[in-house]
């Protein structure tokens, strides 16, 4: 039985190798058949694509992409999401310890994913927006695409239920929504293969007395 399984695996690998070899041969043959005019056109297309990419990057930078910044009011939030196609907004409170954990990771991702605007907004200064978006847990990330809220990252529930989640795990979670350009496996967190799959479970949220939202911050916030 084991021998049959090994034979199947060997055949699959052999077929995959043959397919890759055929694709490479086809590409090489295509290049060999190109004359100088074709090569020049190819260079022009690549140069045009590079210029377009650089222009897009400059446009993002002019709008504040590449940095993790704070917006001072609800009015500024609406301006930000209107100006940028992809926005990650961290709804936070100064007294919530776990908000500072998000700050650390988002600062890194803002520089890496300049296609997306990363901002933060103090819920104490945005009661209307907090109510409108039904922000009930602090911290929460609102993922806004084309001016519409597409998804939320509520606390650390989707990040392994641990304060020790990595930047790569948060990157994976944002990538699943399409709010950033993510080239990894969308179906499995980057730490799942290291025995941490069991951490990706639901946790109970803790209610903060006297407030209209819950918090997953440390007990000092109660």
Automatic annotation (TrEMBL):
Pfam families (alphabetical): Thioredoxin (PF00085)
Domain of life: Eukaryota
GO cellular component term, pick one: cytoplasm
Subcellular location: Cytoplasm, Cytoskeleton, Microtubule organizing center, Centrosome; Midbody; Nucleus
Name the record gives this protein: Thioredoxin domain-containing protein 9
Protein's UniProt keywords contain Transport: no
Start and end residues of each stretch annotated as Disordered: 185-222
Function statement: Significantly diminishes the chaperonin TCP1 complex ATPase activity, thus negatively impacts protein folding, including that of actin or tubulin.
InterPro entries assigned: Thioredoxin-like_sf (IPR036249), Thioredoxin_domain (IPR013766)
Coiled-coil features, chain-numbered ranges: 10-59
Domain Thioredoxin positions: 73-157
Chief location category: cytoplasm
Subunit details: Forms ternary complexes with the chaperonin TCP1 complex, spanning the cylindrical chaperonin cavity and contacting at least 2 subunits.
Organism: Aldrovandia affinis
Swiss-Prot/TrEMBL keywords: Coiled coil, Cytoplasm, Cytoskeleton, Nucleus, Phosphoprotein
């Amino acid at each position: 039985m084991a021998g049959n399984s090994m034979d199947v695996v060997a055949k699959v690998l052999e077929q995959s190798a043959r397919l890759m070899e055929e694709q490479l041969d086809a590409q090489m043959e295509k290049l060999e058949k190109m004359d100088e005019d074709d090569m020049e056109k190819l260079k022009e297309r690549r140069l045009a694509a590079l210029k377009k990419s650089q222009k897009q990057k400059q446009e993002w930078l002019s709008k504040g992409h590449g940095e993790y910044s704070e917006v001072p009011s609800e009015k500024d939030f609406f301006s930000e999401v209107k100006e940028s196609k992809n926005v990650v907004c961290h709804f936070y409170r100064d007294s919530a310890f776990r908000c500072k954990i998000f700050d650390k990771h988002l600062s890194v991702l803002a520089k890496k994913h300049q296609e997306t605007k990363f901002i933060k907004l103090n819920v104490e200064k945005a009661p209307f927006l907090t109510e409108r978006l039904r922000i009930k847990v602090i911290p929460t990330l609102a993922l806004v695409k084309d001016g519409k809220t597409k998804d939320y990252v509520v606390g650390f529930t989707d990040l392994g239920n641990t304060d020790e989640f990595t930047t790569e795990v948060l990157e994976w979670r944002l990538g699943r929504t399409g709010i950033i350009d993510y080239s990894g496996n969308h179906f499995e967190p980057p730490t799942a293969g290291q025995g941490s799959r069991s951490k990706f479970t639901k946790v109970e949220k803790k209610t903060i007395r006297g407030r209209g939202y819950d918090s997953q911050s440390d007990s000092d916030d109660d």
